Amino acid sequence: MTDGLMLPPGAGRSIAGAGMTLKVGADQSSVWSAFEALVTPGFDVGAHLHRQAEEFFFILDGELDLLAFEPRSRTIGDWRTWESASGARVLRGGPGAAMFVPAGCPHAFANPGTAMARMLFLVSPPGHEHYLDELGTVIGQGRPDPAVIAEVRARHDIEQLTPMAIGQRP
Description:
Strand content: 25-35%
Distance between the termini: 41 Å
Structural class: alpha+beta
Shape: globular
């Protein structure tokens, strides 16, 4: 039998430039990775999808705009104006709001406010930390070219649908 993992508040591996702390990754789990994410005001991950991964987001503090549906039309503009065939629209969620994203589903989140937001982020299969490490390096170099971000994302099962916006630094 293997022991579990217990972490006090604030513990885990910080992912430089990404605003995330890895709590459980591929080294500990064969099923998923778990992160605590700080989302700066103005940050917009951009609408995207994963062909293989499933994700779960749970807002702990602050507010985020959340998208998890196939829109009637994938416009390249602001995903916050998208609407699904059934009439679903973007949700502005606060503490306790959750979003599940099955594989292949377009999704996004953004911090529309002036305060930091914090969320729990789970992804399956594990290993998403490798993508975040690479992305953190690119973002840490300043305001990267969107084409560079798209190349990084494409290598990690991420199809970018709208651009990412970095926002303010913490």
